[in-house]
User: Which sequence fits this backbone?
């Protein structure tokens, strides 16, 4: 398992209990059979709230946090330069944190979380405050960490990002688990309920001919509600018989966002 998603009320509290920041009332939290404590588990934590010092220079802060994790000055310097270059923040090392944008502050805080090469990395809303370019940059770094063998717990309200990354999910609602397990296996329990279609011409009449519902349409791109996969095959065959050039045709199961809404509010379009 590479990613675990927690969301709705209770997620940050759960993370804080896992890492020993808050005391738990009962139960045991272990990682590979070891109690999750600094002396047992090398972990890194990116909190949702910003935790860097506004009046202190970035390089000084990175050195300080690295030394708290047991790194020497020379070890820290090498890792700081490597990660700052990867995340494109090298130019800010001699600046105070308050002069950086929220997105760049977030990237600095991410570097603090991974600087000491932790085996377990906990990311709470890692893409908060990032523009699309920096979001993609951070995603590429996270994937690189996973490929290198790091285990990542990620909490986010951005279901599209979770669906892109996750192998396993946990959804919390008001502190209670409403869904957990392998994401692929969970989605396989749901029937296909929509089609995404792109064609070179308007195909409204063919969709209506099969009594299918158009959810969204723009510039001959459609999202269509279906009752079963058979509806999708019928539409595809009908378009082929009428020599319609189809650019994209995908029969889809509910998205994680749909499943989230079902589990939290009790409704889903099937």
Assistant:
């Amino acid at each position: 398992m590479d990613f675990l998603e927690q969301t709705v009320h209770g997620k940050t509290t759960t993370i804080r209990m896992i890492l020993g920041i808050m005391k738990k009332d009962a139960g045991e939290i272990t990682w590979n059979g070891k109690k999750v404590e600094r002396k047992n588990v090398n972990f890194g934590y990116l909190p949702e709230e910003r935790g860097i010092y506004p009046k202190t220079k970035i390089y000084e802060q990175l050195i300080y946090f690295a030394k708290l994790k047991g790194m020497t000055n020379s070890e820290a310097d090498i890792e700081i330069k490597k990660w700052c270059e990867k995340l494109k923040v090298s130019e800010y090392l001699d600046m105070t944190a308050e002069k950086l944008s929220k997105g760049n502050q977030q990237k600095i805080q991410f570097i603090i979380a991974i600087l000491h090469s932790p085996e377990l990395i906990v990311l709470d809303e890692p893409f908060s405050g990032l523009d699309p370019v920096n979001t993609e940059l951070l995603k590429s770094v996270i994937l690189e960490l996973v490929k290198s063998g790091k285990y990542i717990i990620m909490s986010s309200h951005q279901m599209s990002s979770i669906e892109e990354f996750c192998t396993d999910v946990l959804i919390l609602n008001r502190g209670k688990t409403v869904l957990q397990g392998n994401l692929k296996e969970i989605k396989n329990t749901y029937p296909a309920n929509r089609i995404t279609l792109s064609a070179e011409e308007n195909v409204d009449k063919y969709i209506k001919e099969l009594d299918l519902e158009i959810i969204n349409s723009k510039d001959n791109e459609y999202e269509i509600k279906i009752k079963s996969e058979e509806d999708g095959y019928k539409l595809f065959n009908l378009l082929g018989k009428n020599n319609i050039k189809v650019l994209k045709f995908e029969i889809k199961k509910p998205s994680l966002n749909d499943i989230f809404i079902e589990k939290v509010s009790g409704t889903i379009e099937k």
Remarks:
- The chain has two domains: 11-187, 191-252.
- The CA atoms of residues 43 and 120 lie 5 Å apart.
